[in-house]
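Support case: user asked for a sample of complex input and structure output to validate their parser. Sending the pair below.
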Amino acid sequence: MRGFDSLNPITALIYYLFAICIPMFTLDPIIALISISTSVLFDILLQKRMGGKYIFVFLLFLISSLINPIFNQNGVTVLLFINDTPITLEALVYGIFSSLTLVSVIVWFFTFSSVMTSEKLIYIFGRISPKTALVISMALRFVPLFLKNYKKTENALKCTGLYDTDSLFGTLRLKIRAFSALLTQSTEYGIITADSMEMRGYGKGKRTFFSLYKFGITDTVFSLGVIFFGILCLCTLNGVQFYPTLFEKELIYSNVISYISYFILAVTPSILTVSEGIRWKYLLSKI
Amino acid sequence: MEILTVKNLKFSYPLSSKATIDGIDFSVKKGEFILLCGAVGVGKSTLLRTLIPEIRPVGEISGDIHINDGLRIGYICQNPEEQIVTDKVYHEIAFALENLGYDNAFIKRRTAEVSSYFGLDSVLFEDCSSLSGGQKQLLNLASAMAQSPDVLILDEPTSRLDPVSCEKFFSVLTKLKNDLDCTVIIAEHNVSELLAVCDRICIMDGGKIIFDGEQNDALPILAKYKPLQNALPAPLRLYGAFDIDTTPPLTMKEGRKFLNEYFIPSDEDEEIPEFKYTSKALEAENIYFRYSKSGKDVLFDFSLDVYEGEILFLLGANASGKSTALSVLSGILKPYCGKIKVFGKKIKEYGASLYKTLTYLPQEPRCLFTHDTVKKELDEVNFQKDSFPYDFTPILDSHPYDISGGQAQLLALAKAVSGTRRIVLLDEPTSSLDHYMISQVTEVIKSLNADGITFIIVSHDLDFAAECADRCTLMFAGSPCAPEHPRKFFSGSSFYSTKINTLLRNHYKSAVTFDDAVKLMEENRRAKI
C-alpha cells in the first residue's frame, strides 16, 4: 500500500467527499469527536508540526460554540439567566458539537489543500474538460507572473521621482499608474502567448489531456473501501436529537457500527502516512 | 528538395507608405541551416512571420509563397517568458501534443525523450516561473521540437539571454542540426556563434536580401559589411579592418594564426590614466541583504565607493547578486544591515526625494512607460531636446511599445536623466539590443557622463564595459572585488575578458577594445614578404 499522497486524485476526492460530508450532514456528537481528532492527527502528520493556525481554529471553536446558546433558547434544562435570557444546557451542548463539526471540516480542508496540489486539481478538471484544465493551468502561471511584474513596474516608476511616495495621495497615484501600465504590458504579452499557442497547434483539433496519474488497483480497492464504510456508516446511523431534551445514552450504543466504520474511514490516511514512515525507516535500516 | 519557396514577396504594414519587404526571392531546402542576418529594422522578423500562415502579420502582401503540404513549422521568438503557456515544465512540453490530440501513452514517451534531450529532466516538475531565462528559452525550444516540426524558425532567440545561456542555447541548436538534420531558419544579431554552424547565410538590407550564399562565400563579404561589423566574431572583425588577401579567420585558432602571419607581437604597455575623480557620490558600507529570513545572504559584506562623474561597471556571473546590489543601492530593497549614503547623506533621510538625485532603470525599460505616445512620455519629464544626444523626432508619435528595444532603452534613459538627476543606475542596458544599438547607447552614456552624470552599470556585456567604463569590478560571493581601470581589469584576468583581449593576449597584452587592437596592429604590421 502506498502513502495517501500518491493515490490518484480522483480516489482522494472520493475520500474527502465522504470524510467531510458525513460529519457535516449527520451532526452526531461522536462522529464530530472522531472527525476532529483524526483530522487534526492527519494534519499534524502532514505538516510535521502544529502550526499557528490552530490558535485561529481554537478561537473559532470557542466563539461559535458560545453563539448558539446565546441566540437559541430551545431546551428544557436552564443553566442560568443573562438579562432575563435563559441559557439552556441543550443549546450549549448543541453549540459545542456543531462548532466541533465545523472546525473539523476546516481542518479536513487544511489537509485537503496540502494533499491536493494544483497538479491534482488540474488532473480532476482535465478528466471533465481538457479546456478547463488548460485555463486553470494558465491562470496558475499568469497570476504570480502578474504580481511579479506589478512589483517590478511599481519599483521602476517609483525611481522616476515623478511620484511623491511620502504622501498617501502620491503613493495611490503611483499604484494606479503602475496597474494601468501593467494592463498594457499584459495585453502586449498576451499577443505573444497567443501566437505561441497558435504555433503549437492550439484550436486545430480536439484537445487531449496529458497527466501522469494512473487509476491503478490500489485506487480501486481504496475507493471501494471508502464507499463501503461510508455507506455503512450512513445506513446504520440513527439520528440524534438535542431539543427539547438531550438524546439518551442508549442511542449512542445503538450507533456503534456506524461509529466504527467512520473511525476506520477517517483514520486511514493517518495510518497510511505513519506506516509509510515506518516502512522507510525499516528499508533504510536494511540498507 | 525545396520545401518552402517565396517569389517576389512584397509586404507593407497598414498605414505605412514604405514596403517592409520589398521583393524577396527565397527558397529553403530540406535539412538546411540558414542564418538570416542584417541590422535592426531591415525586415528580418517580418519576413519570418510572413512565411508562417498562422501568425502572418496583417498588411498588404503580394507575391507567391509556396509551402509544401502538411509542412509543420516550429516557431520561437525573442521573449522567453511570454511564450510559455502553462504552469509546469512537463505540462508545457506536452502542450503541443495535447493540442494535436495524441493519447496519454504517446505524450508520456515523447515528453520523456524531449526533456532528456534538452537537459530539462531535472526541472521537469518545477514551475516554469522558477526557471532562469536560458532554461525558459530551452523549454520553448523543447516544446516546439516536441511536435517534431519539419522546419524550425527562430526569431532572435537569444537576444534576451546572458552570454552563458546563449552559448548553451546555440550548442543545443548545433546538436539538433547535427543529430537530427532539422531544417532551421534563424534570424539573429548575435551571429558569432552561428557562423561556424550554418550552411547558408542571407544578408538583408532595406527589405531585400542582398546576399544569399554558402557560408564560405559569405565570410569575406560579412567582414566588410559595415552595419554588422560589431556583431562579428573577433577574428573576422579584425580581418575586416585590414586589406589582407587570405581566407577569413573564423575561430580563435584561425585568428591567432592570422595574427602570427601578418603582425609582429609587441608588449608595449600603454599607460593607464590616473583616476581623476575625488568626491564620493555614493557610499555603501558593509551591506548584508537576503530575500527571506531563512534564505542565503545575496549581498555579504558589500562595500563600494562610487565617485562623482565616473562610470562604474559591476560585472559578474549569473545570479551573483549584481542586480540585487543595484536595487539595494537605489533604495528599493532594504538591507538588513549596513548603510548607504548618497552625497554624504543617508538614503533613509531622503525619503521619496532620493529619486530627485538618483534613479534606477530596470532591465525591462517598458516598465517605465505609462503613456500612449513617445511625445507624452517625454513631456511628462519636461524633456529638453538639446540636452540629450539622441534625436527622438522620427518616433515622437509612436506608441512606446512599438519602438525598437534600443530606442526604448534610450527613451527610458532620456526620462531618467531629466531634471536634477546626478546618479543613474542601469541594469543590463544592452541586454536585448543589437550591436548597432549598443554603440548608440554607449555614445549616449559617454556624452551624458561628460555632462557630469555618474553611472553605475550592471552588465554581462564585457565589450560594452571595456568600451565605456572608468572602473570595473567583479561581484563574487556577495561583494565586489576592488574596482580597476578596464584595461588593467581585463588584461589582468585570465578567463573573464573581452573576446578581443582573449584573442590578442599573447600578441598585444594591453589591447582590450577593438579600437585599441586596430591601433596596435597597424603599428606592428609585418612588411610584405
